[in-house]
Amino acid sequence: MGWIVFALAAWALGWLLNVWLARQPVTWWSSLAAPVIFGLTLLAVWEGVVRGFEINQVLLPAPTAIAARIGSSADLLWADFAQTVLKGALSGYVIGCGAAFLIAVAVDRFPFLQRGLLPVGNFVAALPVIGMAPILVMWFGFDWQSKAAVVVVMVFFPMLVNTVQGLQAADAMQKDLMRTYAAGYWRTLLKLRLPAAMPFIFNGLKIGTTLALIGAIVAEFFGSPIVGMGFRISTSVGQLTLDLVWAEIFVAALAGSAFYGVMALVEQRVTFWHPSQRN
Amino acid sequence: MRRTVVPVFTVVGFLLAFWYAAAVWLNAPWAYNKAQRAGESLSFSQVVADTWSQKKPKLPAPHQVAREVWETTAQKAVTSKRSLIYHAGVTLSATLLGFVLGTGLGILLAVGIVYNRTMDMSVMPWVIASQTIPILAIAPMIIVVLNAVGISGLLPKAMISMYLSFFPVVVGMVKGLRSPEAMQLDQMRTWHASRGQTFWKLRLPSSMPYLFTSLKIAMAASLVGAIVGELPTGAVAGLGARLLAGSYYGQTVQIWSALVMAAVLAACLVGIIGLLQRVMLRRMGMS
Prior knowledge:
Distance between the termini of chain B: 18 Å
CATH superfamily of the largest domain in chain B: MetI-like
Strand content of chain B: under 5%
Structural class of chain B: mainly alpha
Radius of gyration of chain A: 23 Å
Largest sheet of chain B: none
Structural class of chain A: mainly alpha
Largest interface: A-B, 58 and 62 residues
Oligomer: heterodimer
Order of helices and strands of chain A: HHHHHHHHHHH
CATH topology of the largest domain in chain A: MetI-like fold
Distance between the termini of chain A: 48 Å
Number of domains of chain B: 2
Shape of chain B: elongated
Number of strands of chain A: 0
CATH superfamily of the largest domain in chain A: MetI-like
CATH architecture of the largest domain in chain A: Orthogonal Bundle
CATH class of the largest domain in chain A: Mainly Alpha
């Protein structure tokens, strides 16, 4: 009973604190504190509910149990992280985004190809590409190469579509100005059209971050060596060691947020001139 | 219209040609291997013919996939477990349920975020953070846990679809509900409109273009969720189950035909929303 009261009290306290924060003038620390308080409140409620209703640890472990697990099997988590994220997701992300970028720049010189490729690319980007995973695992074997291939296929089309669209973003007046400067194709590309395309390119890069993680992890369900986050999740579910599964989820969420955050930071530095970055 | 049709067909034709070439390249080793064991030597045309008609090719040629799709849709009873339409139907039901739940949750959250400053400050960052969690990766766990609690069948898959589809709706609707200009909001105030009236007569109608764009993304995401949600259920039914069974038994033609079916399904669903969007926005005078 005490734990349920604790959960309710934590909820009320967190909410009141945030209501109070919302009434204050906005500063950088209050806009940071509000989501942090909300997150902590959720954790406290989770802990209280699990203990209060005595929910079986097999079904839903308490946050403290998960934290303990993260501490006790840090080596295992790191090995899985290196296999899935560093080897599979990152290499696939770099190859996929790089290839899509180069092809988009090449296609951009031929308006005919562009008009054909954009609808096809848009269509493919909406398809459940993740279904390619079993085929690619068959082709490239169980190790990280096949995971990287899945990631390449997943990030390629969103990146391609965004880059092609971005390269059309520079308007006619700006292009005319470049022509009056007697700038050739390459100089116009480097000085005007690529910078103008950056907001779109970063949109593609940011969409790719979560897709890359998802692709690398899901591909491991179709076959993997005995290390990796997807492998650990699927086997731990079978063994009902759900605290380990949650620990992997925590690592995945952390990696995903960090990956996205890094791209957002780079975007801020590169596209500082764009209206959405000014405040 | 013709400006895009010709280029699109050119690109698609090029992709098909590439596919056939890749099929020759990937399947040729097996063809040579077989011929060597039989003590024969193959001419180039024989190799090509063989690579396009193997039973378990590494990459099936498009016409093999097309034949498999035709045989498993048109020539099987819809209730048969070997009918792709039956499996697509199973996936479709989970997709639609998840889509409806996700859209409902998304709109509710968006209304809360637009009208409540506390929610805007504390919930919105978490909505964004929620998508950096690779939910598809934990789909197996969600399904196992929900099974243990006694929820099985459609709902666990739909929950995964819901989680994937609520996000684009929240983001789009928050943008849409905030899209009326200050001038328009002032106008509502001069008419002494209540908050409810402002919502129903100004904010909601002006959010419609944003809503439909988000719905298209949400639908595609929902289908992906349903397919992945079927993987850990032990390959019982659904397109995801066909993928898994195909990968267990090396039935590449089956995998590809399931993929084609998923693509057709996605195209139809997104197309229907696009059609609704055109009709609705025209009747509202917004297109």
